[in-house]
Design a protein that fits this description.
alpha+beta
């Protein structure tokens, strides 16, 4: 019985090894294809703009290469606004790179989609990660789950590919959670098998826009809204890309693909793109692609989209106590609530309280909140409480309320007619520092 177990295990291992070997192209075929690509690059009258070599993708069989594609694109919805070069500021910048923007990196590390046509899930999730990093004060990297998008969005699958606009709609409406809650499987796992813990931990986009796919439109959206998801047609030479500015020079059309643009460089007349084929392809997983690809057979940006916050912010902050200009007691607490205008799917992810710019102790994010004002340490006189709330789509709202600490007389107490046996100064002392109360 034990021998049968080991024989079966060995058979499975050998089968998996054989399947992996079958996914590789013959070495002679790969070298021949590489020779053709390099020959066509040398024929360019202006000289080659990119270099080709045997990459992790070039080693795969033709079927295995096609399995890494699958970008269905998607026609822009007529009900959604469309960014254009004329309406988006920032188009004048000669270069943008969100990997180093004002000293911060807003682009998450390159991932590998594996043998699954899930580029549409990886590109939209990567754009959402950058959107969240831009909208929050988080300096560390985040890692969101593509498997949730593959399994739960209905936007596509591992065999036929999917549509980036449907994926974006899902990331706006529902969102996705940390990778640890639903690790990537490179397979069409049913959504129900992912477990339900991630549903209370989602991060999402405020909204998504279809972007004008012209060079100026893409540049403008990149400059003002961050990384942009783009669709394009992949030709055989693209699998051999190693460095430089890619332009199609050789090979047949292999399928469609979805990646995320993270910048552009007018000097090189190229966009900077982040792929999802791992770091052993291209320039550590990135590539430059010529502006000319927009109008060539590559059709870069034929379908493209970006994430942006809702305007105005849906976050609403209500401060119940203290009321504006109230007189507070030494042990007073501030209380209030956070709601969301027109959308109940948002949730509070951060609350920050300050008094005159001094931060109060942190409070667990919740829609109903309470925080001690610690007025004992405050000088007599006017002060300002500031409350900032953030949601899981990066929207924020800040509200400020003035209040007073000190020996302030109560306005509605009448000192004009004291009784004959009452000491006026004693009556005054008893009504100093009276704590505020809420009236119904």
């Amino acid at each position: 019985m034990k021998n049968r177990f080991w024989i079966a295990l060995a058979s499975l291992a050998l089968g998996a090894f054989a399947e992996a070997r079958e996914a590789l192209a013959p070495r002679a075929q790969v070298e021949f294809e590489l020779g053709v690509v390099r020959h066509e690059l040398r024929k360019k009258s202006s000289g080659p703009r990119w270099s080709a070599g045997i990459t992790s993708m070039a080693q795969l069989s033709l079927d295995a290469r096609r399995a890494r594609l699958g970008g269905g694109g998607g026609a822009p919805s007529g009900t959604l606004p469309k960014l254009s070069a004329l309406s988006v500021p920032g188009a004048g910048a000669s270069a943008v790179d969100w990997r180093d923007r004002d000293g911060r990196d807003f682009v998450t590390p390159v991932k590998n989609q594996g043998k699954c046509a899930s580029c549409w899930a990886f590109s939209t999730t990567a754009a959402l990660e950058s959107y969240i990093l831009r909208r929050s004060s988080v300096s560390s990297q985040i890692d969101l789950s593509e498997q949730i998008v593959v399994s739960c969005s209905g936007a596509g699958n591992c065999v036929e590919g999917g549509f980036q606009d449907y994926a974006a709609e899902y990331l706006q409406r529902i969102g996705t959670a940390d990778e640890s809650l639903a690790p990537y499987q490179a397979a069409d796992a049913p959504c129900t098998l992912l477990g339900g813990s991630w549903t209370n931990e989602t991060l999402r986009a405020g909204q998504w826009f279809s972007v004008d796919g012209s060079v100026d439109g893409l540049r403008s959206a990149l400059a003002d809204h961050g990384p942009v998801v783009v669709w394009f047609r992949v030709y055989a030479d693209f699998f051999f890309y190693q460095s430089g500015v890619y332009e199609h020079v050789a090979g047949d059309w292999m399928g469609n693909h979805s990646v995320v643009l993270v910048g552009y460089d007018d000097t090189q007349r190229a966009f900077i793109a982040k792929n999802s084929w791992g770091t052993r392809w291209g320039d550590r997983g990135y590539f430059l692609i010529s502006y000319s690809a927009v109008s060539s057979e590559v059709e870069l940006g034929r379908w493209s989209l970006a994430f942006a916050p809702k305007e105005p912010s849906p976050v609403q902050v209500r401060v119940a106590q203290p009321r504006p200009n109230a007189i507070v007691a030494p042990d007073a607490a501030a209380t209030g609530s956070v709601t969301f205008e027109g959308d109940e799917n948002f949730r509070v992810t951060a609350l920050e309280f300050t008094v005159d710019g001094r931060r109060l102790p942190p409070v667990e994010p919740a829609q109903a909140w309470s925080v001690a004002l610690s007025t004992e340490s405050l000088a007599d006189g006017p002060h300002t409480l500031t409350v900032t709330a953030a949601d899981n789509a990066g929207h924020t709202r800040t509200v400020s309320v003035p209040f007073t600490v000190g020996e302030t007389l109560v306005d509605d107490f009448d000192f004009r007619h004291p009784g004959p046996d009452t000491d006026l100064e004693d009556r005054r002392r008893r009504f100093r520092r009276r704590p505020f109360t809420l009236r119904p």
